Amino acid sequence: MKRLPVFLFLFTLFIRISIISAQDRPDPKNPENENLAVPVNWNVRVDHADQDVNISADEEDADIYFVNMVPGWHITTGPAAIFWHPASTASGSYRAETLIHLFDPQGRNEAFGLFFGGNNLDGEDQSYSYFLLRNSGEFLIKNRSGSETSLVKNWSPAPMMNRYTESSESSVRNHLAVDVSGDQVTFFVNDKEVATVPATKLNIDGAVGLRINHRLNVHVEDLSVEQM
What is the average per-residue pLDDT within 195-202? Predict the structure, then answer.
């Protein structure tokens, strides 16, 4: 039997692993278990690890209401938290993006958006970078390392953001995207560039997921990662 050259075998294996990984990423149109049930295989971490939190599909009983709601997922937070699926990872050059509908924040100016470059997310030495919006029409870029956070870009105007107002319908939708390419990372709100940051200032390789701050009601229509 003729053997494949080692480099060809490894290349074929890499392609196969990449395809499997992409297939395992969460699909907003095809939940891994029942619609309106808590998503299986997802992880949730609140900012205060010692906090006892009930994640449930029962809105009356939940500290965090988190369910499949095709297309996508619905989240209503008590405490701030990050949400991620272990197959949603990226490294090198990639694009991460999400479509988030914000429901009435009831006057609160809490933030929501993407995190990326997540590592050790279930440990004390967790690390990730995050890109958030808040209903004042502003965006923020920060890093987290353990329990500490550091600013990359402080709250800055994002005039292209759709803000919830008294005249809004049930919700407003915003598209956040992060392009990692070479030595720089570019951030977009509703397809308009808002910032470019040197890649050395951010966590790049690792998990991609959602960060939803305190007492917000959102519907995540999509969350995707594409290797470039």
Answer: 98
Residue with tokens 């907003």: 28
Q: pTM of the predicted model, to two decimals?
A: 0.89
The two three-digit tokens of residue 181, written as one number: 């390419």
Structural contact between residues 130 and 151, judged by C-beta atoms closer than 8 angstroms: no
Give the separation between CA 161 and CA 20, rounded to whole angstroms: 35
Cα–Cα distance measured from residue 119 to residue 176, given in angstroms and rounded to the nearest whole number: 21
Are the C-beta atoms of residues 163 and 191 closer than 8 Å to each other?
A: no
| Alpha-carbon dihedral angle through residues 187, 39, 55, 47, given to the nearest 10 degrees | -30
pLDDT tens, residue by residue, 34-92: 999 999 999 999 998 777 899 999 999 999 999 999 999 999 999 999 999 999 999 99
Tell me how far apart the terminal alpha carbons of the chain are, to the nearest angstrom.
36
Residue with tokens 């009435």: 104
User: Can you name the residues that pair with 12 across neighbouring β-strands?
Assistant: none
In contact, 139 and 194? CB cutoff 8 Å: yes
Closest by alpha carbon to 125, among 143, 144, 142, 146? Answer: 146
**Region class of 137: left (phi > 0), else alpha (psi between -120 and 50), else beta:** left
pLDDT attached to residue 51: 78
DSSP state letters, 16-39: HHHHHHHHHS-BTTB-SS-TTSPP
